[in-house]
Design a protein that fits this description.
single chain, about 775 residues, alpha+beta, Agglutinin, subunit A, 5 domains, seven-stranded mixed sheet, six-stranded antiparallel sheet, about 25% strand, binds adenosine monophosphate, Receptor-like serine/threonine-protein kinase
Length: about 775
């Protein structure tokens, strides 16, 4: 806020106070200006403390237009020709609490006083003050400042009351109101949705019956005024105690500054403080021992959503859940705490501390009485665990036993149509062979010779399949050799898949499989050699390599998109790769990308667009939610991974930088946060030249965020992606909130799935999830 104006008074006919200007009280104890709550663009006119204590100054103590925010910075405050205060904006005048101010017969002016009261006064022609026309203290929001009144004026019928904000971030009227008893007794009441929720009891000897100690502040002097004209509670403090205030918060608790006051704290179902009225709940809660515990994370199932107007508070939502015997969890619909969604069954929920995730409240019931439920659950858990361990070892044993003779023979038969029979160094025996079969058969001797007997010096890296070596054929051709390791998590199935698939696919952005070797225990794949290794080296490990500039990155993005488009649409088979990630993008001499590793790819029928699989394979961080959780695989599974890859290429950061650390926010979450705050270019790799084209970078991030949207049907197809990346004149849609969820095996287990980790490395985690279906 730029304090462009330092006056405490606004005069009729004077320039309006603009959105960016402030009024300050004479001793600068309060200020009045427009503001937006956190994570919101809505503009409200509010009064704030202006004290040395920062935390006090951030919360508005009064709001003029709580239910009618302005959506841009065109708002201004003025006194119109009738002497009335009003808020105008580019679209005219907005309704506000000022509408209750009367018409002044002569000039008027409004002053922000040092007690926080904003007072509209009639001014005599000689400049002296006449009568008070209107004051903000008569129309409090949720905050009770010293000098304010809570009660009723019998002559005018005016009631002084406070109404809570709907959520901490949204000032609109919430569901709790505190005010004087309309029946005229000397007590205060809190209403929730119009029903009495708490009563103070009668005022006697300086305090209310149900609130013997009204305040934690010894210096606050409360008085209850009762005469034929008025009945109200008010209080005063010493001048030095400016900052003292009471407030009704979003869950109906009276707070003093940051702490709960010493009265009016009611629990969900029982009564904590005297004066709390018992709320009526269905029979299923007859024993009253239920409560809710919150967890922050991501939910995959849609619940029942109330109230599209978002005028429900979290407390209202809790009540909806408690009224429904089958409700198991509830949460606000929006991140700013409004709206309501409830779930009646166990949900797929992943705990994650990301601020972009929702806080979900889960039902908890009395443990003591339900001991037998816990017993059964624990026993089932132990049995399930034992069974899983047994399965794991049986499966492992089968794998380690490896590929025996019979399997080798079967494999050779199955691949007969694909592989060209052996020649000494893998060359086709004749032209006919070359034409029909694109993958050649290499002898183990030729492979051993090419790699200098699998010398450690020739090792290029290690993937899920096993070690990868560089080799050279006698003709001088460089090759890369992947040797299926015996204890690899992947096995014959992936080996066969890779050969059968890649033999039928040909595209400049797919790595070429030259041949294979199947002999005894050895299963080896031979590829064209990619001198620039895989993209993860260039992108994340730049200390050892030259940094990729933007043009090279864009070329890689384009190439990968083209390769995927080919797989999805133009190849002879309709293929979903299922494991697209930086380490599966290889770079040739010219840094052109080639998609590799088709071991996990899935072939779709021509008319098939979606499949359900029991075998979920891939890499967390790149896996779409519907695939990781429900095993639903489609082209959109790859689109999601492509989106993650895009964000990684732009930022030079991994989606999950390490699996061993707690990470509050992954890259997708971070990108989304920047997008929401309009700072999306901050995602750009800081090592990139500052002259890199910002429009193109912004475009890539936009496409990336579209690809990682939560619902597959919201994600673009690869045809759309290529179009959006190449046509820079096309206006891109704004992305919806993305899915950023699974973080590690431990959390995945929460989804009650049995996970067997098949690869264990520090940087990424490939896994196979078996589900009983
Ligand atoms: P992968 O099993 O495909 O994950 O490969 C493991 C690592 O070996 C990769 O990250 C690459 O660095 C390297 N690599 C794999 N294939 C090739 C290739 N054709 N040319 C060069 N390096 C490769």
């Amino acid at each position: 806020m730029n304090p462009a104006a330092y006056a405490d008074t606004i005069l009729q006919g004077q320039q309006p106070i603009k959105d960016w200007e402030s009024l300050y009280s004479a001793n600068k104890l309060f200020r009045l200006h427009f503001f937006s709550p956190r994570n919101s663009n809505s503009r409200y006119l509010g009064i704030f403390y202006n004290l040395p204590s920062k935390s006090l100054n951030d919360e508005a103590v009064w709001v003029a237009n709580r239910n009618t925010p302005i959506q841009d910075a065109s708002g201004s405050l003025m006194i119109d020709t009738n002497g009335k205060l009003k808020i105008t904006y580019s679209g005219g005048t907005i309704p506000s609490v000022f509408d209750s101010s009367p018409i002044a017969s002569i000039n008027s002016s409004a002053t922000l006083q040092d007690d926080g009261n904003f007072v509209l006064t009639e001014v005599n022609p000689d400049g002296s003050m006449n009568r008070t026309l209107w004051q903000s203290f008569d129309y409090p929001t949720d905050t009770f400042l010293p000098g304010m009144k809570l009660g009723v004026n019998f002559r005018t019928g005016h009631r002084w009351s406070l109404t809570s904000w709907i959520s901490k971030q949204v000032p609109s009227s919430g569901s709790f109101t505190i005010g004087g008893d309309p029946n005229g007794t000397s007590q205060l009441m809190i209403w929730w949705q119009g029903n009495v929720y708490w009563t103070s009891g009668i005022w006697r000897n300086g305090h209310f019956d149900n609130a013997p100690k009204l305040s934690n502040y010894d210096n606050a002097r409360f008085s209850y005024i009762s005469n034929e004209n008025e009945k109200y509670l008010t209080y005063s403090v010493n001048k030095s105690d400016v900052g003292t205030h009471l407030k009704i918060d979003t869950v109906g608790i009276i707070t003093e500054g940051q702490a709960a006051a010493s009265f009016g704290v009611c629990s969900l179902s029982g009564m904590l403080d005297a004066g709390c009225l018992k709320r009526a709940y269905p029979q299923c809660w007859k024993d009253d021992d239920f409560w809710y515990e919150s967890k922050t994370g991501h939910i995959f199932d849609d619940g029942y959503r109330f109230d599209e107007n978002y005028n429900m508070s979290l407390f209202d939502c809790q009540d909806k859940c408690a009224q429904n015997c089958s409700c198991f969890a509830y949460a606000s619909l929006t991140l700013n705490g409004t709206g309501c969604e409830i779930w009646s069954k166990d949900l797929s929920f992943y705990t994650s501390g990301s601020p972009m995730n929702r806080e979900v409240y889960f039902l908890q019931t009395g443990r003591a009485r339900k001991w037998w439920i816990w017993l059964i659950a624990s026993l089932s858990g132990i049995l399930l665990l034992a069974f899983s361990i047994l399965c794991y070892f049986v499966q492992r044993k089968l794998r380690v036993k490896g590929i025996n003779e019979a399997e080798t023979r079967t494999l050779l038969n199955e691949l007969e149509d694909t592989i060209t029979p052996q020649s000494q160094y893998g060359k086709p025996r004749d032209k006919q062979d070359k034409k029909l079969k694109q993958v050649y058969f290499y002898s183990i001797e030729s492979i051993a010779m090419a790699t200098n007997n699998f010398a450690a010096a020739n090792k290029l890296g290690e993937g899920g399949f096993g070690p990868v070596y560089k080799g050279m054929l006698p003709g001088g051709q460089e090759i890369a050799i992947k040797r299926l390791s015996r204890n690899s998590g992947q096995g014959l199935r992936e080996f066969k898949n890779e050969i059968l698939l890649i033999a039928k696919l040909q595209h400049t952005n797919l790595v070429r499989l030259l041949g294979c070797c199947i002999e005894g225990q050895e299963k080896i794949l031979v590829y064209e050699y990619m001198p620039n290794k895989s993209l993860d080296f260039s992108l994340f490990d730049s200390s050892t390599r030259e940094l990729l500039n933007w043009t090279q990155r864009m070329n890689i993005i384009d190439g990968v998109a083209q390769g995927l488009l080919y797989l999805h649409k133009y190849s002879r088979l309709k293929v979903v790769h299922r494991d697209l990630k930086a380490s599966n993008i290889l770079l040739d001499h010219g840094l052109n990308p080639k998609i590799s590793d088709f071991g996990m790819a899935k072939i779709f029928g021509v008319h098939e667009s979606e499949a359900n699989t029991n075998r979920i394979v891939g890499t967390y961080g790149y896996m779409s939610p519907e695939y990781a959780i429900k095993g639903i695989v489609s082209m959109k599974t790859d689109v999601f991974s492509f989106g993650v890859l895009l964000l990684e290429i732009v930022s030079g950061k991994k989606n999950y930088s390490s699996y061993c650390l707690e990470r509050p926010l992954n890259l997708i979450g971070y990108a989304w946060e920047l997008w929401m705050e309009g700072r999306v270019l901050e995602l750009m790799d800081s090592r990139l030249d500052n002259s890199s084209p910002k429009d193109e970078i912004r475009r890539c991030i936009n496409v990336g965020l579209l690809c990682v949207q939560d619902h597959p049907e919201d994600r673009p197809s690869m045809t759309d992606v290529v179009y959006m990346l190449t046509k820079d004149t096309v206006k891109l849609p704004a992305p919806k909130q993305p899915a950023f969820f699974i973080e590690n095996g431990a959390r995945a287990r929460e989804a009650k799935r049995e996970i067997s980790l098949e690869k264990n490395c520090t940087n990424e985690l490939s896994l196979s999830v078996m589900e009983a279906r």
